[in-house]
Specification:
heterodimer, A: about 325 residues, alpha/beta, Rossmann fold, 5-stranded parallel sheet, two-stranded antiparallel ribbon, about 10% strand, globular, B: alpha/beta, 2 domains, 5-stranded mixed sheet, 12 helices, 14 strands
Chain lengths: ~325, ~325
């Protein structure tokens, strides 16, 4: 089963989303330090290739179940910078209208199951979305993301087992970023690769360089093609590193500085930019044009969020139930 | 024609599956075996394995999958083999399903059928009444029918409701009671209590298997000049305070009877709300009749001592009438 290689336009699109993700998250850090963000800030810095590479391998009608490190996938599914910023500022114009914060948003009409805090909770839900595709004979796939820490939870195991037994079209995608809050991988599992867990459920498991966006894209595309053919779920593990704290309040002083330095040299965006320049798909002019476009989008988003109204307290009780 | 409570549940499921192809069932042993209580016997042959889906032993997994199906516009009905095992799926129910609409505005139309209750000598893990665990959580609807007609009408309402509904079906009632059920497609609206026996001395507010015991107590007390009004809540969340209030205003004396432990039970909330909102109509302190703060014991003599019955209800009613 081969994978369609991305066209130059698609490659530049991937580059754009990697940069947009990094740019938006950097801007959120600034807003956080200015005291403008309500609550915590959860970033995917250094892990953008897993979110963007995976989402770039999907069809428009596919569904994602993202984590808090998957802004890039959300953006590729149609979440706008304005919505993202308004959500962080707890505004009425955010995706949850101030009812939930930071990256806890989604929109099923755009193919996004909204992330929630308990880790791995979205994995069984993703299996249910895939089950629906199977029942309706729709050739659609769900990309369900999780972290190394989440793979210790029961819902991870229940979801993978359920999806494998029922042969559901899901691609389970792991950000193995070495740390779950302060807990290192060695305290999370007694095996080396999260992908090894796949064998226990009777599905293929593959580990790829999570900082190589095209490697991620390729692995997810293969797994998605397999799922679309009715051959069931797969597990794709992207090896990466969480380059910041669990959230921005966390200085991550428990992470050895040398480890961060080692991974900084493998930054997924720098690497992809170099790759594009090698192929002469990117030059200074194109790079600047993309940077300028992103800078403008980010500033418009901040302006939009800052000038948006807060939720009206008279709506506090509305919507506990669907009518 | 009179049918059993179990047959009423079966009919509601059958008719809803027949009426709406979005309705499908998930659970352990519901297909080939027909369910632990044979509620779904014959469904597999009629509706096929994709609509009557046997799952792995995986409560959190299949409740999560039902949520995914609901998000995609299906109408999943989950059978929790025993409501005791619902604890395994607690997180999916209270964190994912219950909060989703409030956060995102997306409906989660799903039903969890929860066979509950004691009186069948089944011990601490097959007899519990866990409704209060969920009563506390905003976003869930809870129903607990006490008669075949209500069992059928409320299950139809639950399946058509756009919210997550936990349908508490009492195991003791399955084959112990029979009743007339309307032949036509009749809905019992969620949120409406019913006065099952009008009376003037005391309002007995109850639900589930305790309805029958309360009605039996009422018959016995009639010769003593004590005339119980028996209010069957039918829906526990949202509570029908209007029906409760009109009964309280009529009698001035209130007894709440339930099979779940008194400590932290729904009766405490009902008593508190009556005290807050209707104090001026009360002629006596509110009485609660419910089991003690212990697990449900196994030995028949212990279980009999644990559960309220028409004797204990009548005894408390005499004392309350004489206050």
């Amino acid at each position: 089963m081969g994978v369609q290689q991305p066209t130059p336009t698609e490659l530049l699109n991937i580059y754009y989303y990697l940069k947009l993700t990094r740019g938006l998250e950097q801007r959120v850090i600034t807003l956080y330090r200015q005291g403008k963000i309500v609550g915590g800030v959860y970033l995917g810095t250094g892990e953008e290739a897993i979110a963007v590479g995976s989402a770039s391998a999907l069809e428009p009608s596919d569904v994602i179940a993202p984590t808090h490190r998957d802004l890039g996938a959300n953006l590729m599914k149609g979440i706008t910078p304005k919505e993202y910023m308004a959500q962080y500022l707890a505004k009425q114009t955010g995706l949850t209208r101030g009812r939930d914060g930071n990256v806890h948003f989604g929109d099923i009409t755009r193919g996004i199951i909204g992330f929630i805090s308990p880790m791995a909770d979205l994995l069984p839900v993703a299996a249910g979305v895939a089950l629906t595709f199977k029942i309706r004979r729709e050739r659609r796939v769900v990309a369900a993301f999780f972290g190394d820490g989440a793979s210790s939870r029961g819902d991870f195991h229940e979801a993978l087992n359920l999806a494998a037994v029922l042969k559901l079209p899901v691609v389970f995608i792991c950000h193995n970023n070495q740390y779950a809050y302060s807990t290192p991988l060695s305290r999370q599992m007694a095996i080396e690769h999260v992908a090894d867990r796949a064998k226990a459920y009777g599905m293929p498991g593959i580990s790829v360089d999570g900082n190589d966006v095209l490697a991620v894209r390729n692995a997810v595309a293969l797994a998605a093609a397999r799922a679309r053919m009715g051959e069931g779920p797969s597990l794709v593990e992207g090896k990466t590193m969480r380059m910041r704290g669990h959230a921005e309040h966390d200085d991550a002083s428990y992470v050895p500085p040398a480890l961060l330095e080692e991974w900084r040299a493998r930054d997924p965006i720098d690497r992809f930019a170099a790759c594009l320049r090698d192929q002469t798909l990117l030059d200074d002019v194109t790079a600047k044009a993309i940077d300028d476009r992103i800078a403008k989008e980010i500033e418009e988003a901040v302006l939009f969020a800052e000038s948006s109204p807060l939720p009206d307290t008279k709506d506090l009780l509305d919507g506990v139930y669907a009518a | 024609m009179e049918i059993t409570y179990l047959e009423a549940i079966r009919q509601a499921l059958w008719e809803e599956m027949d009426r709406d192809e979005r309705v499908f069932m998930l659970g352990e042993d519901i297909g080939v075996y027909g369910g632990a209580f044979k509620v779904t016997k014959g469904f597999l042959d009629k509706f096929g394995p994709e609509r009557v889906m046997d799952t792995p032993l995986s409560e959190s997994g299949f409740v999560g999958a039902a949520i995914g199906g609901a998000l995609m516009g299906m109408r999943p009905v989950v059978e929790m083999q025993f409501s005791d095992f619902i604890a395994c799926a607690f997180d999916q129910i209270v964190n994912m399903a219950a909060k989703h609409h409030y956060r995102t505005g997306e409906p989660v139309p799903m039903v969890i059928r929860a066979p509950y209750g004691g009186g069948i000598h089944a011990g601490p893990f097959h007899s519990q009444c866990p409704e209060a665990w969920f009563f506390h959580v905003a976003g869930l609807k809870l129903v607990a029918p006490s008669t075949p007609a209500d069992a059928k009408g409320l299950l139809k309402a639950a399946i058509r409701d756009p919210n997550p509904v936990i349908y508490f079906e009492h195991k003791y009632l399955y084959r112990h009671i029979k009743g007339e059920v309307p032949a036509e497609d009749t809905i019992v609206p969620i949120g409406q209590a019913e006065v099952k026996r009008p009376g003037s001395t005391i309002s007995v507010i109850t639900y589930g298997a305790m309805l029958q015991h309360s009605l039996a107590a009422a018959e016995r007390l009639l010769t003593e000049g004590i005339d119980l009004e028996v209010v069957d809540l039918r829906t526990l969340q949202p509570l029908d305070m209007a029906t409760i209030a009109s009964s309280v205003k009529k009698t001035g004396r209130v007894m709440v009877v339930h099979e779940a432990p008194k400590t932290g039970g729904i009766g405490g909330e009902i008593a508190a709300r009556i005290a807050e909102e209707l104090f001026q109509y009360l002629d006596a302190p509110i009485v609660r009749v419910a089991p003690p703060h212990t697990p449900v014991p196994f030995s028949p003599v212990l279980e009999e001592a644990y559960l309220p019955n028409s004797d204990t209800i009548a005894g408390k009613a005499r004392a309350l009438a004489g206050f």
